[in-house]
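Researcher: Let's try something more involved. This one mixes different molecule types, so please make sure each is placed in the same coordinate frame as the others.
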Amino acid sequence: MVRKKEESALYEKDGEKYFVVDGHVHFWNAGPDNYNKYGKMFIDCFYGYHSALSPEEYLWDEEKFGKYSEEDIMHDLFEIGYVDKAIFQPTYLLDFFPNGFNTTAQDAVLAEKYPDKFILNSSFEPRMGEQGLADFEKKHEKYGFKGVKLYTAEWHEDSKGWKLNDYWAKRYLEKCQELGVKNIHVHKGPTIRPLNMDAFDVNDVDHVASEFTDLNFIVEHVGLPRLEDFCWIGVQEPNVYGGLAVAMPFVYSRPRYFAQIIGELLYWLDEDRILFASDYAIWQPKWLVEMFVDFQIPEDIQGEYGTLTPDIKRKILGLNAAKLYDIEVPSEVPQEEPVMAGGEPGYPERPL
Amino acid sequence: MIAEASVLDALSGVRDPELDEPITDLKFISDLRVGDGAVDVRLRLPTPFCAPNFAYLMAHDAREALLSVPGVREARVVLDDHHTADEINAGMAGGLGFEGTFSSFEETGEDLDGLRAIFRRKAFISRQERLCRALLADGYSPAELAGMRLEDVPSSEAKEKYLSRREELGLDISADASFVVDPDGRKIPEEAVMQHLRFARVTRLSIEANAGFCRGVLAARHGIKDPEEETA
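Model: All components are placed in one shared frame. Result:
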């Protein structure tokens, strides 16, 4: 099974070859046997995203969306979805899903069965304090992951969220440094402590990115709905990256917004710090990859935003993630040097 | 007798603070009943996991708006299908305030004034960018924009919206006040106008793209037509 298909399996369009790393996938269990009232609402919310932004031929019914099979994920990602490597981003949500929504252990079953296909990330829970720190270290010993996915809106007993610059969160980030867990994926959600703050604000990323300069902070859904705050910190912090989960499907339903979002990211960050992701099973990589490769910035705004070249698309679709995760890229895929652009002078002193 | 039109008019003054659009346009009102001295309104949001602090603000503001209508003695606002619906509905019915409503949460902070202020600043910057963009398209130069006073800006709906957001921030809206200012009211110097607008554009895009996302999800969940046509 060792990489035998790789030469022929790369996605190719108009003579250009693309190596695809899907930076954010799930193998969740959100069926009725595993949700409480909040879990049911949570998966309903995901289903709303799925049904609002998918092409009709890719729509699932709610039952399948709640719990899909190993065959489904292998087929959708690797058989038809052009994905060469997929990164599992565990999301625990134990207060909503008694056995966990998508835990490291759940994902590990597939990651261990298909080691050439999946990269397994894990997670930590800063509110578990000292004991959690020891458990995290054990988990790392067992799985040897290079990245974690953190969901700051996660509920834990009466706490409805946390910030990256909380004391305990920093203790866990120190542990990540020590263990060589260098990729920190940050996912913002609707709740936070205290509740009167903007939960989607990415300001805490700014604090830890400048404190932990040898860690990479990948902000999921490029900070949306706070793209401006994300761009603002991206200019200042070279170790901040943008993951395109949730932004990607705009390529189909709202292509003009998609063009502007990508355009702003290229302007404020650069083409080396943007990572493709489907957020499977919310959306499927097949149509996202096809449409992204075919996509171009509309002519009337090319003056403001420029154009997307195959080299830029190759970086976004896979090469940037390959660098972060030390993934070997087939030699037939052209690799452009980093541009080290981004960062215009004269942005405001602070975000609004 | 309470006029339904005046009730709707009052509700149209309530905006989603994040999306900067009236809750009536966003189709967040799913039911409205006008009785003798009392009004019942049901609110629905795009998903059960929309941010609870914004949900609270909209429910609170809707109730205040209803009570401002002549003849309304009682206003009942109920939020449907939301993960904090029980808390918010009890909070509205009992007049518990923000902290009281979310007393089961670990930490709420005192009030939502700071949160509201952040989004008023964003709305202001976004409206200013839209207006400047239209003026640049009409042939005004960046230098001209930098020198303009409010009275120099031609009348339009976009200008009215800009002025209302500007007034909400407590900034000067007199005829001879500078047009292009930051959210603290400081005039943007001529050489910095384009860079100021470059960043303002991201704020505007963020709000618009989010609004588009929310409309799309609400429409899909309730089987209604997505009213948004793509615009430039």
